[in-house]
Write a structure and sequence with these properties.
- By secondary structure, the chain is α+β, with helices and mostly antiparallel strands.
- It has three domains: 72 residues, no CATH class; 98 residues, no CATH class; 156 residues, 2-Layer Sandwich (Alpha-Beta Plaits), CATH 3.30.70.1230.
- It contains 14 helices and eleven strands.
- The protein has a seven-stranded mixed beta sheet with strand order 4-5-3-6-9-11-10. A two-stranded antiparallel ribbon has the order 1-2.
Length: 398
């Protein structure tokens, strides 16, 4: 498919005279007077650069002197999403949702809403179609709809941002630092990115389903435990109770915001190595890592506590942020390699209350108490999602 000057101008949101000028400069290269869909992205980038003071003439010089090429972007986004006829006001009315919801939903999706009267991108309309359906399911509650959309928008944005930062640091910058020019780098970028992007999209879909299944099981187990409690029933305990430990790093979110995802990824990798080695040596099992923390399983409470004390001491010595730990014991549900249930949830809540370099346990986890350890009672503590206050204790070395 090819585009006329008029069609390219409409899809990219600019004037036909601008398209003609870019073609004269060589920024666009029409074939028999027609353009490719990929030229939509070229025009958008060129206009964005012009707004930052980099003129089309400057860009044309970079291209003509072989300092820069659009070829990689053309290959990766050969058919960019076009603008459509209709403003946000018109799309909102057509979909039967308030204009305020349309603006809030796009903002929550981490994309800028178009200005009043401006044309809408086709994918923005597609997002708003989803929003309209969600809005109907949730009974027309605008705040609930926006809250539900926000989780998807922000987390998908972070995936895309992290992927591009990884590609930049691991592929592009090393090659440029080695003396390769951007146009010379284009074939490699096109080949690598062209193969990785479809895999990334597939991984997102597979990963989402996998994690959704996990949290569905978690919600089901929680509902069953609540039902048993209300019915006056108690689970039958088989053997010794499991010991669940949650370890988190302090200030990981702030570190990510200040130093970026690459630094956060390095911290996560170093944490993984340190925790796996220490937990295995203590006879425990590392169940999973969650970026800034880990879920651990032990059979012996004392081993769990001693391992936690060692970890909060050793982790800062590795140049990592300080850690804090929550420990709980009790019956657990094991499914598909993971652990579920109130015992696990309470351990996570306890960890969230621990101070940096602190190990907190629920009352009764460490009984008897070894002579070289001490428990400092905190008393009953009310926690979100837990029906009754829980007695907590700080574990310290005597």
């Amino acid at each position: 498919m090819t585009l006329t000057t008029t069609e390219l101008a409409q899809r990219s949101g600019t004037a036909e005279e601008r398209i003609d000028r870019l073609a004269q400069l060589g920024v666009l290269v029409p074939i028999a007077g027609r353009f490719r869909p990929a030229d939509v992205q070229r025009v958008r980038v060129t206009e964005a650069l012009a707004g930052a003071g980099i003129s089309p003439e400057d860009l044309a010089r970079l291209i003509s002197e072989d300092w820069f090429s659009f070829a990689a972007g053309d290959a990766l986004f050969s058919d960019p999403v076009p603008l459509i006829d209709g403003s946000l006001e018109e799309v909102s009315e057509d979909l039967g949702i308030p204009l305020s919801l349309a603006r809030r939903a796009l903002t929550a999706w981490s994309v800028p809403p178009p200005g009043s009267g401006d044309p809408v991108r086709a994918d923005d309309r597609a997002i708003l179609e989803v929003v309209a359906a969600v809005h109907e399911v949730l009974g027309g509650d605008e705040d609930r709809t926006v809250a539900g959309i926000r989780y998807f928008g922000e987390n998908l944005r972070r995936i895309a941002e992290s992927q591009m930062r990884w590609f930049r640091s691991q592929v592009m910058i090393p090659a440029l630092d080695g003396g390769t020019t951007q146009p010379q780098l284009t074939p490699m970028i096109t080949e690598i990115a062209g193969r990785l992007l479809p895999l990334a999209e597939r991984a997102v879909a597979i990963g989402y389903r996998r994690h959704l299944e996990h949290y569905s099981v978690e919600l089901t187990v929680e509902a069953i435990e609540m039902a048993m409690e209300r019915a006056g029933m108690r689970p039958t305990r088989l053997g010794d109770p499991a010991v669940i430990t949650f370890l988190d790093l302090t200030g990981f979110t702030a570190l990510t915001e200040e130093q970026g995802d690459e630094a956060a990824a390095e911290v996560a990798e170093r944490l993984t190595e340190a925790v796996r080695e220490r937990v295995a040596g203590a006879g425990g099992k590392t169940v999973k890592f969650m970026g800034d923390g880990a879920l651990l399983h032990f059979h012996d409470p004392e081993s769990a506590v001693r391992c936690a004390l060692d970890l909060v001491d050793e982790i800062p010595e590795l140049g990592l942020p300080q850690a804090h730990v929550g420990i709980n014991s009790g019956p657990i549900v094991f499914s598909d390699g993971d652990y579920f249930g109130r015992t696990v949830n309470l351990a996570a809540r306890i960890a969230s209350l621990a101070e940096p370099h602190q190990v907190l346990t629920a009352d009764g986890v460490l009984d008897p108490v070894p002579t070289d350890l001490r428990l400092l009672p905190l008393g009953p503590v009310t926690m979100k999602g837990i029906s009754e206050p829980v007695d907590l204790q700080i574990v310290v070395r005597a």
